[in-house]
Amino acid sequence: MSPPIQFEMRRRTLLVGTAIGALTAAFAGRAVAQTQAVVAETPGADRSAVTLSVNGTDRQVEVDNRTTLLDVLREHMQLNGTKKGCDHGQCGACTVTVNGTRVNSCLSLAVMHEGDEIETIEGIGTPEALDPMQQAFITHDGFQCGYCTPGQITSARSVIEEIRAGIPSHVTDDLTTQIAVTDAEIRERMSGNICRCGAYSNILAAITQVAEDQA
Ligand code: FES
Ligand code: FES
Fold it and tell me: How much is the CA Rg of the chain, to the nearest whole Å?
């Protein structure tokens, strides 16, 4: 017995669709192969030499163009103080400053920073002469496991500078006077730095103390 007409049409439609799909895949595959051939025939097209000024010292590296600033710092320069938490711009563990401005280094490609001045936690104080923010974190017990701490300290120093520079935040309600260093300002500006240990209240105390000492 022959199948119903409706089934026969569906089966034909399926066969035609499959054939088109196969052809599309073949063309797509050829396009990918051609793209790879172009890249392969152009030596060094996917790599670049980049010079960064890291903690005051010029460092040159040759990297795949897709390498993040974070990976260059950690994997190429062995500056492991800067941490990789999420690698998606959501935790702040990778915070460093670039030309004085804090950035999430996991979201920035190294090749974008030719000649830029990068400061990592290794460039902030020394064990013998701690930066005031580092000392305040110790004094106020602003960490537990410490994984988020380099990013927290880097961000915290920038927060005080941003408030002093008069840069408003989402919670700044008066733009006509000097911005006050309030708990709300600090919490808002530090909201991009996650602490899974929940040391937030002690981090807040540390930043407040540094802001008061430097007022
Ligand atoms: S590792 Fe960059 S924001 Fe989390
Ligand atoms: S101290 Fe452990 S994540 Fe912040």
Answer: 26
CB 148 within 8 A of CB 92: yes
- For residue 21, give both structure tokens: 């799909």
Neighbouring residues of 169: CB distance < 8 A, sequence distance ≥ 6: 162, 185, 188, 189
**Angstrom distance (rounded) from CA 213 to CA 195:** 25
Structure confidence at residue 43 (pLDDT): 53
**Res 42: pLDDT:** 54
Q: Which residues contact 126 (CB under 8 A, 6 or more apart)?
A: none
- Look at ligand 2, atom 4, and give the residue with the nearest C-alpha: 195
For a mutational test of ligand 1's pocket, the pick from 74, 82, 94, i.e. the residue with the most ligand atoms closer than 8 A to its C-beta, is 94
* CA separation for the pair 150, 4 (Å, rounded): 71
